[in-house]
Amino acid sequence: MFSKRSVDKLLQLYKNEIRRQISKTTSVTNSDAMSPRLDQTIIHAQTEDAGLPNRLLKLQKYHRYLSTLTSQQMPLAARGLAVSKDQSREFMACFPDIVRDLTESDKHLDVPEASKWLAKLLQYNVPNGKKNRGLATVLAYKMVEKRENLTPENIHLANIMGWCTEMFHTLQLLSADVMEGREMRRGVPCWYRRPDVGLNGVNDANMIQAAMYSTLKRYFSSKPYYKNVLEMFNEMLIKCSIGRYLEQQIMKTDRPDLSLFTMDKYEAITKYKTSYYTFQMPVGLALLMSGVDDPETHRQAKTILLEMGEFFQIQDDFLDCFGDPAVMGRSGSDIQEGKCTWLAVVALQRATPVQREFMENHYGSANPNDINKIKDLYEELQLPHTYSVYEEATYDLIRTQIQQVTRGLPHDLFFKILDNIFRQRI
What we know:
Helix 8 (152-180) runs antiparallel to helix 9 (201-220). The chain is built from 19 helices and two strands. The protein starts with a helix and ends with a helix. With 426 residues, the protein is mainly alpha-helical. 66% of the residues lie in helices and 1% in strands. The chain has a two-stranded antiparallel sheet.
């Protein structure tokens, strides 16, 4: 038998080899570095292809089948967490109670207009996304808690905790929209773009944060895990702030500094800005609610969940560039915003001096011609093919890591989250 340390070392070597192969410069279609798996079947469904844009039709026939672009198996980054209709209804039913608790208490009777504004702020911003983090919190709790403890009261508390994670997410979005100058969010104008909001949206983000902590206190202050839950929320606030800081360092000027677009920088931004609170936080909260506070158990869960978070962001980067806007519900904006994405980093790793100069001239421009030129360069550098191979290798790697989990953590929980990210296999 291999020791745990030996297994971890082998997994890290495998991961490093994947990254080394991705960074290799190759213009040969069937190079050994990027050749598809022999057991991977290339699928061309004519009925599904009929409605896809030309670029997507081209990509689905690009070397091998791209699971991320299939319309019937759209991944988590596009469609949201797959849960039952009953679970979704159960989750949504809790939100009006939370708003009522926050706005109809006897604390602020002398300023009714403020309570009315808070209700409007919450209803406009919190419940209208995919609710991945909130639903994942409930899903994880139901899978890690002992059956005898899954009482209606505890399940209701798990749903409340899920909405606290959604308020946390909303706080991040409100801040990001102002900092990045975004126009639209979830198909409607960003909150701060409303005529009655403007830069007062900065204070509204603070109101969301206060509402989150008020809800935590109201429902969980008597619970033995309350202190640890507060510490987790505080830790995630710090980590997200660090991630935002790292990202903004690249965007200090009108055009992005491509010399800073390294894989180490990208992974750091992804981990701090997205992975911690999108993947580790929901499962970590569920573990705390079920009485699991063993550091080693949380460490093992964190290791796997951060790997999932990194791929989730890479998948989101790919879909932002090559996904179908009709399915995504939005048009991509990473190229014109000059974001440090996985596609941009790998392109710069492979680019010739001429191609790098080309990126310097066109990346970060809102001109549609420049955006299309960058997408054409990505295809010239075979990034869709690289992504598809990376997707399969990462899926296999994370499955192996899950199988090494001990400490009584349910493998099915991690497999369910994994398959929601990659494909609907469960």
